[in-house]
């Protein structure tokens, strides 16, 4: 019995010794392999230092460097990525790119993150014509597109850090890129891009399949989209003024974030978000409106004196709702010019991205100025088309100019009588006002007639002020010394920066300022003569004399960084207006005849209109109240 026990104990002892020997031999081999690796690495370093390359065969490398077992690698990935570890084991799990392009745009899509990392405008150049630098809305990591994934095993993953598997196919002439972030053979999150010929708009879809057991569907997925907008134009000040974030919400309403250093908003039922630069825009559209969105705009131009690479940073965060444990959104991307004609063709309210003005101002641009200018540029150079457009506007507005000048002439003729009434009733302002209104009524003169024509010109003025900065057709089109009608026409570059003016001198604003000076000098005297001073009111004559010098100076500073096409318009417009007024004054209006007509009107019985009658009643009532107080 004891012998049997000894035999068993001996066997156990020998077994333990055998296992220990195997463990020692295994560690010895591992240490030997490590030493060989170190030795090989040192030999490579020494060989580089001696500039004598050494060839190492694949078999030798395999002997030296022992690969990590697949099971260990999968375990590491599983611990960090969970079910999405599957995507990291595929051959596509590397930082490579898929490029698709058509006649107008070239797009590069990364396996890592599955989003567009480069968007090139093939027909547009940066800064100036012939620069050789294409406009890029996205490149060198200025954009980010990410969906935050929350899994059932309490992991939070970001798609921008995970690898998608790309598949490139064709549907007719359309190029299709499908990128799948896989959690198994039939479990994936898919981004699907469809690029059509000669289009800036892409079809884009986000959908999941089989992830209802992988993702936590209790809360929506969070989609984040960010872009730092590149500077593409000559004037960073002017470009940044028209760089803004625009969004459509609540079934067709549109709004934008202001120009502050940092602005934000939280609209609901959002159907598109546009990161707009001056003449280009990136837009994300969705067929199923996002329930809400958080949009942010940050100004990156801190010092306008210095050159800058970026103008603004835009951010948008939107929820993607689950339906039966899966997500399915049909969307569109637009990477292209902020061209009214192109955007309007899509019939998705994208024309609101182009700032043509609100209300009647936008209406005038859409239905009058844009069609007229499109017609003119069919057969005229762009600079000549602006001049012809200006002439047409001034011809159409000439009756208004005539009415305004005629009213001033009538008031000028009545001025001596108005001054007599002022002296006669100097101590009784109410009586003076009553007698003045009676004089206007007898003479057949409406003191408001000169104001109404001026008010009628305001919509035209403001519409054109919005039209020229938005006209991408003027971009990099030259005229005379201006090499770009959409930017300033510099003739001298200054070695220093003048606040509110810039570091250059533009010629068209100087010409426009000179024209404004002579126009105001012509009209100010007549306006002062036609507007008698009112008791208790400032002397408008003195104010207008000061404005003769202030207005041209403001024009000079304000327009120095503006589009030269806009300055050209104001120069031609004021020059033509001066000519029209000279013709009216010297050949059409005769002050002697006006005076005779006024005297004749005084002899005729006059019936007051409703407004005049109401004013008369109000003044009489005020006079009664004054007498009662006395």
Fill in the keyword field for this structure:
21 strands, nine-stranded antiparallel β-sheet, 630 residues, disordered N terminus, 15 helices, alpha+beta
Q: Summed up, what is this model?
A:
The protein has about 625 residues and is α+β, with helices and mostly antiparallel strands. It has helices spanning about 1-50, 60-65, 70-80, 85-90, 235-240, 340-345, 360-375, 380-425, 430-445, 450-470, 505-530, 540-560, 565-590, 590-605, 610-630; strands at about 95-100, 105-110, 115-125, 135-140, 145-150, 155-160, 165-170, 175-185, 185-195, 200-210, 220-230, 245-250, 255, 260-265, 270-275, 280-290, 295-300, 310-320, 330-335, 490-500, 500-505.
Commentary on this structure:
The protein has helices spanning 2-49, 58-64, 70-81, 85-88, 236-241, 340-345, 360-376, 382-424, 429-443, 451-470, 507-530, 540-558, 564-588, 591-603, 610-629; strands at residues 97-101, 105-110, 116-125, 134-138, 143-150, 156-158, 165-171, 174-184, 187-195, 201-209, 221-230, 244-249, 253-256, 262-265, 268-276, 280-292, 294-299, 310-320, 328-337, 490-498, 502-506. The chain is α+β, with helices and mostly antiparallel strands and 630 residues long. It is elongated and about 135 Å long. Helix content is 44%, strand content 25%. Mean pLDDT is 80; it is low at 1-6 and 43-69. Helix 7 (360-376) crosses helix 10 (451-470), helix 8 (382-424) crosses helix 9 and helix 9 packs across helix 14.
């Amino acid at each position: 019995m004891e012998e049997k026990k000894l035999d068993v104990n001996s066997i156990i002892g020998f077994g333990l010794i055998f296992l220990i020997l195997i463990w020692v031999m295994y560690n010895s081999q591992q240490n030997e392999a490590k030493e060989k690796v170190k030795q090989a690495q040192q030999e490579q370093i020494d060989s580089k230092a001696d500039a004598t390359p050494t060839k190492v065969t694949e078999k030798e490398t395999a002997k030296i460097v022992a690969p990590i077992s697949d099971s260990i690698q999968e375990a590491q990935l599983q611990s960090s990525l969970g079910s999405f570890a599957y995507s990291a084991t595929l051959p596509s799990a590397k930082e490579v790119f898929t490029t698709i392009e058509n006649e107008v745009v070239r797009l590069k899509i990364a396996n890592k993150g599955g989003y567009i990392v480069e968007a090139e405008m093939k027909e547009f150049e940066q800064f100036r014509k012939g620069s050789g630098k294409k406009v890029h809305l996205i490149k060198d990591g200025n954009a980010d597109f990410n969906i935050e994934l929350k899994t059932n095993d309490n992991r939070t993953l970001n798609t921008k850090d995970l690898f998608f598997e790309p598949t490139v196919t064709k549907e007719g002439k359309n190029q299709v890129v499908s990128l799948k972030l896989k959690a198994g053979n039939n479990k994936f999150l898919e981004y699907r891009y469809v690029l059509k010929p000669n289009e800036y708009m892409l079809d884009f879809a986000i959908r999941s399949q089989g992830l209802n057991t992988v993702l936590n569907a209790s809360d929506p997925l969070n989609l984040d989209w960010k872009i730092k907008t590149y500077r593409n134009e000559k004037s960073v000040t002017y470009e940044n003024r028209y760089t803004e974030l625009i969004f459509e919400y609540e079934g067709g309403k549109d709004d934008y974030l202001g120009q502050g250093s940092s602005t934000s908003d939280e609209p609901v039922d959002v159907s598109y978000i546009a990161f707009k630069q001056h003449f280009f825009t990136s837009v994300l559209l969705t067929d199923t409106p996002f329930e809400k969105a958080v949009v942010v705009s940050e100004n990156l131009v801190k010092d306008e004196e210095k050159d800058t690479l970026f103008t603004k940073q835009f951010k948008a965060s939107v929820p993607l709702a689950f339906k039966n444990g899966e997500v399915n959104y049909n969307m569109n991307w637009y990477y292209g010019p902020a061209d009214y004609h192109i955007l309007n063709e899509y019939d998705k309210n994208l024309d609101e991205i182009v700032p043509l003005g609100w209300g009647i101002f936008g209406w005038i641009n859409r239905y009058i100025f844009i069609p007229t200018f499109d017609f003119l540029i069919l057969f005229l150079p762009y600079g000549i088309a602006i001049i012809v457009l200006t002439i047409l506007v001034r011809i159409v507005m000439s009756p208004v100019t005539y009415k305004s000048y005629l009213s001033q002439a009538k008031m000028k003729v009545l001025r001596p009588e108005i001054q007599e009434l002022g002296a006669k009733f100097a101590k009784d302002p109410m009586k003076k006002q009553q007698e003045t209104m009676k004089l206007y009524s007898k003479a057949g003169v409406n003191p408001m007639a000169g104001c109404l024509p001026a008010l009628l010109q305001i919509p035209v003025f403001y519409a054109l002020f919005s039209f020229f900065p938005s006209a991408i057709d003027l971009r990099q089109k030259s005229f005379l010394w201006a090499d770009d009608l959409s930017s300033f026409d510099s003739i001298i570059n200054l070695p220093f920066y003048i606040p509110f003016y810039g570091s250059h001198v533009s010629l068209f604003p100087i010409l426009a300022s000179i024209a404004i000076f002579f126009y105001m000098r012509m009209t100010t005297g007549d306006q002062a003569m036609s507007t008698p001073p009112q008791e208790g009111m400032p002397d408008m004559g003195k104010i207008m004399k000061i404005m003769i010098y202030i207005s041209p100076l403001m024009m000079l500073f304000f327009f120095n960084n503006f589009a030269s096409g806009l300055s050209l318009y104001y120069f031609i417009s004021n020059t033509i207006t001066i000519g029209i007024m000279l013709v009216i004054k010297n050949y059409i209006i005769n002050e002697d005849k006006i005076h005779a007509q006024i005297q004749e009107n005084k002899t005729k019985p006059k019936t007051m209109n409703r407004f005049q009658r109401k004013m008369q009643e109000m003044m009489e009532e005020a006079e009664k109240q004054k007498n009662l107080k006395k």
